[in-house]
Specification:
Number of domains: 3
CATH topology of the largest domain: Rossmann fold
Distance between the termini: 51 Å
Helix content: 25-40%
Structural class: alpha/beta
Number of helices: 14
Number of strands: 17
Bound molecules: L-homoserine
CATH superfamily of the largest domain: NAD(P)-binding Rossmann-like Domain
Radius of gyration: 24 Å
CATH architecture of the largest domain: 3-Layer(aba) Sandwich
CATH class of the largest domain: Alpha Beta
Length: 433
């Protein structure tokens, strides 16, 4: 039986997890892959004392792996954009298959990488880049191959979800972020987690695999969780909603919506129950309806689980001496559609508005009239006398689904009213219809 040789680049959280699981479960993985999988080389900027590499050659030069004769699959676990791009393109040029957990790399350079890989006839697999250990790329590319996918929505950053969950329990943002970093969930630069960039990388990939469109990360809208206050979390709860940091991609006739932002979701929906570092992705297909994929979205062995599933997939193809088994984005390149990402003003959403109004007669009527002039239907409205402070009282409104353009114009008019002296807080809401 021909063995398949793997070179691991990067021995950080995911690299260490991959090494440990591949070693621990070697026999059962070989049974599934149909060939033994041998780690023939490891390279990383620094060696780890807690990992016993035995007699596996180790180098500080990750590029050695891309050239080594005894490597069939280069496993890229260094993260980042530029060096990773060079590493992967060099590996492809040298005829190596690639498995990566690097969502930033695929979201930003994926079109170029897939083209290079197709020319060279090698596989580039990236399951571990999206939602950690959850096999959602496999679900979208293969399990839902018979469906027209209409929308995808998910909690796809574990760190952000962990922070929002703990904030709901009354803990402070900074303290929880530090804890997520200590647990190895956060990106090297945690603003990627907190400001939605990491989630936008993952959403970009999901949308392309789901809708069959080229990767367009630069057009994704990202809004982070750093401005979410305990007040809004509590008031969303009173309205029957929970605030989650969601990535939402929707296929529309003239383009796609691609956006990451805090979102009110109904407490009664399963996704509202997804707490801590866990991730969940909802995928709506015209044949199957709504499906949800749930599990650990970050962490060493959870992510290693997805890395190894890709290694097994590639190993089967190597053993069968076959070409790419599944197209990179699940669609043949000639079947990709050039649908552009729509501007945010064209998206459709419901909205939570918090309006700090002066406590005067007729204020509510004026607010309602501005909303109605812009065709915005109110779903619920809440104002509590007990929250009156220095003559001002918050009015909380939940709207029906409208176009973002309508809300923007209405907010401009509301902020121009003499009864409203502060910026209106606006959080999008989603009912998953
Ligand atoms: N920083 C990422 C997260 C790691 O928190 O989800 C997994 O991609």
């Amino acid at each position: 039986m021909k063995e398949v040789r793997v070179g691991i680049c990067g021995l950080g959280t995911v690299g260490g997890g991959t090494y440990n699981v591949l070693t621990r479960n070697a026999e059962l993985i070989a049974g599934r892959a149909g060939s033994p999988i041998r780690i023939s080389r490891v390279a990383s900027r620094r060696r780890r004392d807690d990992i016993d590499l035995g007699d596996i050659p180790f180098s500080n030069d990750i590029f050695e792996i891309t050239k080594a004769e005894d490597v069939d699959i280069v496993v890229e676990l260094i993260g980042g954009y530029d060096v990773a791009r060079e590493l992967v393109l060099t590996a492809i040029e040298n005829g190596k298959h690639v498995v990566t957990a690097n969502k930033a790399l695929i979201a930003v350079h994926g079109n170029e990488i897939f083209e290079a890989a197709a020319k060279r006839g090698v596989i580039v697999a990236y399951e571990a880049g999206v939602a950690g250990g959850i096999p959602v790329i496999k679900a979208v590319r293969e399990g839902m191959a018979g469906n027209r996918i209409d929308w995808i929505a998910g909690i796809i950053n574990g760190t952000g979800n962990y922070i929002l969950t703990e904030m709901r329990a009354g803990r402070a943002f900074d303290e929880v972020l530090r804890e997520a970093q200590d647990k190895g969930y956060a990106e090297a630069d945690p603003t990627f987690d907190v400001e939605g960039i990491d989630a936008a990388h993952k959403l970009t990939i999901l949308a392309s695999a789901g809708f069959g469109v080229p990767l367009q990360f630069e057009r994704a809208y990202t809004e982070g969780i750093s401005r979410i206050t305990p007040y809004d979390i509590a008031h969303a709860e009173l309205l029957g909603y929970r605030i989650k940091h969601l990535g939402i991609a929707r296929r529309r006739e003239n383009g796609i919506e691609l956006r990451v932002h805090p979102t009110l979701v109904p407490q009664s929906h399963l996704i509202a129950q997804v707490d801590g570092v866990l991730n969940a992705v909802l995928v709506d297909g015209d044949a199957v309806g709504q499906t949800m994929y749930y599990g650990p979205g970050a962490g060493d062995e959870a992510t290693a689980s997805a890395v190894i599933a890709d290694i097994v997939d590639v190993a089967r193809s190597v053993a069968a001496e076959s070409q790419q088994r599944v197209p990179y984005l699940g669609f043949e390149p000639s079947a990709l559609e050039n649908l552009d990402v729509l501007p945010m003003e064209d998206i459709q959403s419901a909205y939570y508005l918090r309006i700090q109004a002066l406590d005067r007669p007729g204020v509510l009527a004026k607010v309602a009239s501005v909303l109605s002039e812009h065709g915005i239907n109110i779903e619920s409205i809440m104002q509590k006398e007990s929250e009156l402070e220095e003559g001002k009282i918050p009015v909380i409104i939940l709207t029906h689904t409208v176009q973002e353009r309508q809300i923007n114009r209405a907010i401009e008019e509301l902020e121009a009213l003499s009864d409203i002296q502060e910026k209106v807080v606006r959080i999008r809401a989603e009912n998953f219809n």
